[in-house]
Amino acid sequence: MNYAIRILSCFLLALSFGIVSAQSTISLSGRIIADDLSPLMNAGVYVAQFSLGTTSDSSGRFQVNVKPGWNDVSFSYVGYLSETVKLYLTRDTAIHIKLKTNLQLNEVTIIDRKQIINALHEANGTITLRKENFTSLPAFLGENDPMRAVQMQPGIFIRGGSPDQNLMLIDGASVYNPAHIYGFISVFNGDAIDHLDVYKDHYPARFGGRLCSVIDVTVSEGDTAKLKGSFSLGFVTSRLHLTGPFTKKKKTTFTLALRGSYIGLYTVPISRRQYRASGFDGSIAYYFGDVNAKVVHRFTNKTRMEFNFFTNNDYYSFDRQYASQSSNYEERGLSDHSIQWANYVASTSLVHEFDDQWQMKQHFSFSRYHIINKDIENYSQTLFQGGGYDSKSSSKTQSFINDFTWREDATYTTQQQTFMMGAGVSALIFETGKGNYAYSSSNVETEVDKLEGSRFKTYDAFVYVEDEYHPHEHWMINGGFHVRVYNVQKKTFVSFLPRVNVLYNPVAKFYLRGSASGLSQNLHLLATATTNILNDYWVPATAKAKPENGWNFSGGMTQKLPLNFEWSIDAFYRVMNNVIEYKEGNEQASIYTPWETQITAEGRGRSYGTEFYIARTKGKLTGSVAYTLSWSERKFKDINKGKYYPYKYDRRHNLAAQLTYLIGKHFEVGTAFVYGSGSMYSSPVQSFHTYGIISSYDFQLAQGSQNPYYNDIVTIYSGKNNARLPAYQHLDVSFTYRKRKKNLEHAFNLSVYNVYNNFNIFQVYSDYRTNEDGTRSMVYKQLSLFPVLPSLSYTIKFT
Amino acid sequence: MKHSLKTILVALSFLLVSGCEKDFMVPEAEGASKLVVNCRLDNQRIIKVYLSESTSPYESAKLKPITDAVVELYSNDSLLGILPFAFTDSAHTFGCYLQNEFARLGNKYSVQITHPRYGVVVAQDIVPALPAVTSHRLIQYGDSTNQYLGQHRFQFQDDASQENFYRINIWQWGKGYVTDTQGQRVLMDYGYFSRPEVTSQLSDTARDYGAFLLFSDKGFNGQMKEINMHFLTIDLQNVEEGNLVVEFTSVSRAHYLYYKTLEQYHNSPSGYQAAQVFGNISNGYGIFMGEAIYSMHHRVK
Q1: Residue A490 vs residues A428, A543, A772: alpha-carbon distances, Å
Q2: What digits encode the pLDDT tens for the residues A154-168?
Q3: SS3 breakdown of chain B: % helix, strand, coil, rounded to 5?
Q4: Would you state the pLDDT for residue A5?
Q5: How far is A535 from B25, CA to CA, in rounded Å?
Q6: Which one of A267, A280, A689 would you mutate to disrupt binding with B, by most B Cβ within 10 Å of its Cβ?
Q7: For A529, which of B22, B173, B273 is closest by C-beta distance?
Q8: Cβ of B274 and A726 within 8 Å?
C-alpha cells in the first residue's frame, strides 16, 4: 500500500510542477444568438487557419484563444446559415454574432469537424441539461429545480441503483445528500447552475467511486459584462441571485445565489390546529436554506482559478403532546423529535492551458454532510389515590462524513483525439451514531449513557487514463481505465476498472452506441425498509463490508428527426457485488448497536431494463416523454432463503412527460407528469399461533396440565420485499408571464403541483386499529406530504 | 384585496398539510390460509400434535383448532397409528391429536395430515439420542446470604460424528405455604422456571423467550465439555417440599433453528419486516421437532 501511495504521490507531484508561463495569445469572446435573439447553445466557433475551435454555452457565450493578426472565424449551428468573419485582432475582443435560420435546409452536409464531434457527444448517452431545460418546467413551490429536469430523462432514478450509487458533484466536489424536503426539491439552486451532465450509459474513466451514475453539476462562472441579478418572492421560498464582474478589468467574476424556505411558518399553526382536532397537541415544522457562491479569477487568458462554496441547512421537527384519563389515573406524554441535516462543500480549482493542446487542472475540495437527530420522550402517570410514576428520556446523535479530496487532471487535445489522465487522493472520516442518551424516572436517578457510535478513517486514491478517439467522422471511441486503491482498517483493496464506449453514426442523424464499464465504490448506504432517505445511513466499506464492485453494460440508438424531434432506445444490464443489507429482523438502524453487527454483507445485485425517449427540443412547442421499464434485485446468503428479491428501489415502471408552449412573446404554459412504481417493502401474508409448543408451559405439561394457557403469534412473510407500495404520480402545470422593460424583466409564475391531489406516499408505518368488536387489527398508514399545492411567485431580473 | 389574500394564504396552507395521513391496506400481498402444525417429540411426554390454521395478519388472530384432520404418525417410516383428537379443556376451546406414548430416542418421526380444506401436509424430524452427561453437581442453592444465587455444574461428552445442538432448562417446583385472602396459611403447589446464566464459553447461542438457553457444539465439537452456570433461586422459608430440575436436552437442528429464529423474530423492531421463523412443515406452517431430555433432579428441601 505504502509503495502504491508513494508512486501516486510522485505522479501527482510531477503533474503539479507542470505549470509554465503563458504564450502570447489574445482572447476572442462573445455571444451567438439566433435571428429571434434567443441564445444558441453548442454553436460551433472555428478559426480555420489555426485549427482552433470551441462551442457556445447555454447563454450563447463563447471564448476562444487566438493569435494576434488576421483570423478567419466561422460560426455555425445546425439549421442555421454559417457565418464567417475576417478579423484583425491585436487585443482581447468581444463580438456578437447573429445567425439566420436556413429554412431550406433539408439535408445538412456538415463539414465542420467540431460540429461532428458535438453531434456525436449529444448522441453518446450523456445527458446535458442547461438552464433553459429546467426553467421551462412547471415550478414546484415556486422552484425550478435542476433535478426535476433530470427526472424527466429516461433511466432516472437511476437504473435500479440506490441513492449512494449515484455520484453527485458540484464543481467537482461530492455532495452526499442532495435533497431538501426529503427529496422533493434538490439542494441545487437553478439560479446558480450553468449546466449539469448526467452519465448513466457510460462512465468516462475520469469518474469513479460509484456504481450507477454520475451527475456533474457546474455552477455559472459569473457574467463578465456587468452586474446582473434577480430576486424572487414566493409563497414558501424566496431567492436572490447576483452575478457579474468584481473589477473594471473584469478578470474576476462571481455568482452568488441565496435561497430560503419558510414553509414552517405555515405548517406549525395549521398542523397544531389539526392535531388539536384529533385530541393531541403538536406541530410539524420545516425550514431550509442554501447558498451557492463561486468566484472565478482569470490571471491570464490561459490561467484561471475558481473558488466554489455551497451549503444547505435543513431543519425538520415533529412534536406531540397527549393527555388521557381513566377511572384510576391520569397520564400525560410528550414526544419531540427533530432532525437537522446539512452539506458544506468548498472547493478550489486552478486551470491552466499550456498551449492549444495541453490543459491542466488542479482541484482541492472539502465536503461535509452531517445529520443530527434529537429525541425527547416524557411520560407521567398520576394516580388519583395518590402517587404515580414519571419518566424522561432524551437522546442526541450525530452522524457525519468529512471528505477531503485533491485531484489533478491533464488534457491533451488534437484533431483526432482528446487524451486525459489524472490522479487524486481522498481522505474520508465517517462517524455514525455518536451522541448521548439520558434517562430518569421516579425509580431511577438521571442516567446518562454516552453513545460511542462508530468512527472510520478511510483513504482512497485513484489514477486514470482516458482517450476519446475519432478514427473516422462516423466513429467515436472513448476508452480508458480507472484504478482505485482503498485503505480502511489497515486493509487495502485495489480495483482495476476498464471503460469503453463506442458510438457509430452509420447514416445521417442516426447513432448506435454501446458501452461496458467496470465500477466500484467504497461506501455503502444502509437502506431501511419503507421509509425515506433520512433513515438511510452512509457507512464506509470496511474489512467486513467490502467495497462494492460491478459491471455496467448498455447499448442504444438515437435518431434526430425533422422538425426538431428525436427519439432513443436504450437497454442496460448491471451486476453488483459486495452490496450490504440489514440482517433479517434488523430493518431499522439501532443507535445502540454498531452498524457492522446489524448487517449482512457480500450480497449480489443486478439491475436491467430498457428505456424509451422521444422529445421535441426546439420550437414554440417543446416536450418529451421518457419511459423506463426496469428490474432491480438483491441476493444475500442470509436473507430471503438465499434467493434474489426485489430491491427497495426497484421501480418497474417510470414515466416522465413534459410539454411547454410559448404563447406570444410573454406567456409560457408548461405541464409535467411523473409516474413511478412504488417502492418495494415487506408485507406479512399470514400469521399463526405457536399453540402447543411454548416452553413456558413445559412445567405445566410435565405436571399433567392439559391446557396450554398461552400462545404466541408469529407473522409470516412470503418473501422479502414481497409487496409494492402504491405508485408515485403527480401532474403539475405552470403559467408564466414575462414582461421585459429596458434592463428589467418581470416574471409572474403560477404553478400547481399535484393537480389531481394524489396522495403520494412519503412514509409508511404500521399501526393498529380497534374494530367494532373491540379487537385490534393491524393496518399500514401512509404519510403524504404534498397534496395539490398551488404556488405563486414573482421574480424580477435586472440585466 | 387584503382579505382575499389572507383567505388564499389560509387555504393554501391548509392544503399543504391537510389529509396527509390515511390508512391503506395491501390485500394483494395477503396469502392463503394454511394448516399450522406444532409438535414437540421427546422422551418424557406423550406425543401431542396441535393443529390450527393461519389467519390474516391484518385481523385479530383468534385461535381456531382443527378437529377434522386425519393425522398419521410414522416412526422410522412405519405407521404408528392414526391419532385421535381430544379437547384439552372443558370449554372445548383447545385440543390436540394424541399418541399415548413417548417418542423413542434416535428414531425418525414423520406426520402426514390430510385435511379437506388444506390438502396433505407433511413434516418430519429426528428425536436425538440423550446427551452423554458424565457428572453433575448442585454446588449451591442460594439463600438470603448470597442473594439467592444458585450454582450448578455438569459435564458431558459431545458426539464428534455430527453437529449437535443443546438446550438447558431450569425448573423449580414443590409445595409451599401461602396466605390466602382470609389470612390463613394454605399449602399449595408452586412452579417456576429460572434463567440459566452459563459462565462457560459457548458460541451460537439463543434464548427461548429470553429464558432457556440453546447452543450448538461449535467450538467444542467432539470434546468433553463442562458447563458452569448460576441462576436465581427462591426463598425456601415457606416451602414444605422444594425440587430443582436442570434439564439438559439434545435437540434436533430444526428445534434449534426454530428457537434461534423465533428469538430474532421477537427482537425485530415493530413496523418492519420481522426475521422469518424457521419452519419444517411442507405445505403448512409451524414446527415438528424432536428433543431428548436428560433431567438432573435435586431435592432442595
Answers
A1: 14, 9, 62
A2: 655 555 566 778 888
A3: 10, 50, 35
A4: 38
A5: 23
A6: A689
A7: B273
A8: no
